């Protein structure tokens, strides 16, 4: 799989030689509020789909949580990163996504994996053409821009995206506003130029 189609579907890829963490997809019953990232949930199931180069047992060991454990969404995001680190250590390129199904105080997780052959990649330099924020109403775009470092014309990488995501989360926490933050990267011109959109779903402490 080439880099450009990978980023068209995902968020944090910079080369086929490393793990590309594609973010977290959350589903919940209609009209149900998505709990804040720090709310404990009972883990009902962890499933792994699409792996062949790295055994499921190794992936689950790196993930670190099992059915019956109490976890937060923050915990699960860190666990997903550990699986990405495992793939990087094995030098297997991967597009790694995490699907959460939340029902009440319970959560089920599926790790969706697209692997590439070990050692088959050459890093590709990416340039950020545009950064946009969508869905932010309680925190201004100016505040988000001041808190983040990715800028049009500059490079984009897993590390920079992760740092900006953490900065956005910290800003929202300081404003006493919770919600979900999902970065989406695309190639409008089908080259090394990337457009990044931060998709934000806000909630206040009452769940509104």
The largest β sheet comes out as: 5 strands, mixed
User: Would you report the number of β strands?
Assistant: 8
**What's the overall geometry?**
globular
Find the CATH superfamily of the largest domain.
membrane protein fhac
Point out poorly predicted stretches: 1-18
Counting helices, strands and paired strands, the structural category is: alpha/beta
CATH topology of the largest domain: Ubiquitin-like (UB roll)
Please estimate the helix content.
25-40%
Explain the layout of strands and helices.
Blueprint: H1 3-9, E1 19-27, E2 41-49, H2 56-63, E3 70-71, H3 73-89, E4 94-103, E5 106-115, E6 127-134, H4 141-147, H5 158-174, E7 177-186, E8 193-204
Parallel strand pairs: 1-4, 2-5, 6-8
Antiparallel strand pairs: 2-3, 4-5, 7-8
Helix pairs in contact: 2-3
Walk me through what this model shows.
With 208 residues, the chain is α/β, with parallel strands linked by helices. The chain has two domains: 9-115, membrane protein fhac (Ubiquitin-like (UB roll), Roll); 127-204, membrane protein fhac (Ubiquitin-like (UB roll)), CATH 3.10.20. Helices cover 27% and strands 34% of the residues. The chain contains five helices and eight strands, in the order αββαβαβββααββ. The strands form two sheets. A five-stranded mixed beta sheet has the order 1-4-5-2-3, sandwiched between helices. A three-stranded mixed beta sheet has the order 6-8-7. A hairpin with a 2-residue loop joins strand 4 and strand 5. The radius of gyration is 17 Å and the shape is globular.
